[in-house]
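S1.2 Input.
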Amino acid sequence: MEIIYNNVSYTHNAKTVLKTNVFENLNMKIEAGLITAIVGKSGTGKTTLLEMLNALIIPSTGSIKVGKWTINKKTSIKDINELRKNIGLVFETPEIQFFNITVKDELLFAMKCFNYQLDKSEKRIKQVLLMVGLDESYLNRDPYTLSNGEKRKIALASILTYNPKIIALDEPTVGLDEVSKKNLIKILNLLKNKYHKTIIVVSQDVDFLHNFVDYVHVINDKKVILSGNKYEVFTNVNLLNEAGINVPKVIDFSYQVLQKKQIKLGYRDQINDLIKDVYRCAR
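S1.3 Output.
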């Protein structure tokens, strides 16, 4: 499902003297069926973009087109409810979206909210647990007592129960170790490649994003300042530095070799491949 932000502006506390303009006439397109990253330094409004997408907040001006729905000040409650059936949002702190004391009740709760195939709930719950790499032994556990990685998997499983077309994740790697990050990448690639989901990942973890995203939007100074595939964006070292965004380590390594040794390396996803290129060039 395609998403288009059209001249979107948003102002916090718009009716008070403390108002803050988060965005001004922001334009951004998110292609259907791809994994898109939104990056920017802290405080640039990345989470606000996801909250507007799910109509938790409404643009002050402009609109967001999500499939056949349009989000603006005129959007009806009925349309918002229909829209939310198609969007699954996982928050930065996953436990804030938990409402029940067992994993099973938590997953069933999401299905009840959207009246999704309740006659097949047992089968669906087992399916989504398997999708995120967990087994049935988790069903009677308290979701609040799980590890950070397990909580994120349960939060993701809870939105998968009602089969949304769009999956949005806010800072999904916070508190995760490298093994958990690799597992999350496998899950997201599965959801894109097998189930054709449109996936949006908001994160400052550029090394994580560099491994698997298709497209990247860079947010700074209340607007999108750069868009492109991951190769086009992450190799734009000067612009990323100016925007206060880290460069993926594998790209920074290549950049430093070029600056200090005048050796131009090809684009590589893994640092080990770059090291091999250095040896080849040195011969």
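S1.4 Remarks. Residues 178-193 form the longest helix (16 residues).
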